[in-house]
Amino acid sequence: MFERMKEKKKEVRVVRRIVLIVALILVIIIGIAGFKTYSYVTDALEPVDADSEKVITVEVPIGSSLDSIAALLEENNVIEDARIYKYYVKFKNESEFQAGTYDLMQSMTLDEITESLKTGKVYHEPLFTINVPEGLTVEEIAENVIAKKTSYTAEEFLKQIDDPAYIEELMVKYPDLLTDEIRGDNIRHPLEGYLFPATYPMYEEEPSLTLIIEQMLNATQSNVVPYQGVLEELEKSPHWLLTFASLLEEEATAQSDRQTIASVFYNRLEDDMPLQTDPTVIYAMGKHKERLFNKDYEFEHPYSTYQNKGLPPGPIANAGGSSIQAVLDPAKTDYLYFLADKEGKNHFAKTYEEHLKNRDEYIGE
């Protein structure tokens, strides 16, 4: 009996030891799991890479939910974990994110990313900016902007935007914007008219040419997409829109002029008249001229709207938002002619006789 009691006590001690060991193992496992979870959550609340200067362009579609935005940010490596970001945003009671194209960085905090998505602005100081004025051709952008603001030459920039393989890549990336029309036989530069005039922040000391170019294309897409429905109703393409807008950009000096000149072009197209706009001749000749002479108007080229009816094969410059809008919201007039006086003010006429009077009065010889 005594022996059985001793055996029982041993068994109890063994069981207690086993229970204790199991309990300790469970505590250790829970502790490790808790620590790992804590570390993971803590890391996920920090910037992905505090030292990174790489810009990551993220497109947030209209109507995106918080779930889809968080997933998009994780997919683009802007945040560590979509679920944690989603809970963080809900904890902070943030909402009303805006659709748009954002240039974000892995060095941004979750608060900076959230503030950017709420306001449509990126809260990060750029190292420098590239300003593209309205109405420049791609050759002028290459020489007067890229060559002066970056380490790239004008030739390098033009080579990049004219590279057939790169154009193919861009057409896949921007299928609704870049159509086969940009590769037409008479097109001088495929991206002429597609490099939107704006000020672009640069967050790298030496941004790649593709980064610079695609920021401009993103801006063009953002300015054209809102009119997609209207273009479909008109059975017109973005190429048609940007070509038409480029003519207004080169001819107009004010928003009201853009809308009135647009009406002149529409009226002439409806009456099967050539547009006869001087900037197309200058573009066709490939060199800047302060004044055109009679022989210049006889210069035969697909882009000359004196020698050909309708719009030219493609844009002759890069138009701004006002010109794009004016194409689709023209003034309602009966004007068929216009000319600019020596101070750049435009004068309109319904008949050729009125136009001649304006010429004699405002231009003279």
UniProtKB/TrEMBL annotation:
<protein>
    <recommendedName>
        <fullName>Endolytic murein transglycosylase</fullName>
        <ecNumber>4.2.2.29</ecNumber>
    </recommendedName>
</protein>
<comment type="function">
    <text>Functions as a peptidoglycan terminase that cleaves nascent peptidoglycan strands endolytically to terminate their elongation.</text>
</comment>
<keyword id="KW-0456">Lyase</keyword>
<dbReference type="InterPro" id="IPR003770">
    <property type="entry name" value="MLTG-like"/>
</dbReference>
<keyword id="KW-0961">Cell wall biogenesis/degradation</keyword>
<feature type="transmembrane region" description="Helical">
    <location>
        <begin position="14"/>
        <end position="35"/>
    </location>
</feature>
<keyword id="KW-0472">Membrane</keyword>
<comment type="similarity">
    <text>Belongs to the transglycosylase MltG family.</text>
</comment>
<keyword id="KW-1003">Cell membrane</keyword>
<keyword id="KW-0812">Transmembrane</keyword>
<feature type="site" description="Important for catalytic activity">
    <location>
        <position position="251"/>
    </location>
</feature>
<dbReference type="Pfam" id="PF02618">
    <property type="entry name" value="YceG"/>
</dbReference>
<keyword id="KW-1133">Transmembrane helix</keyword>
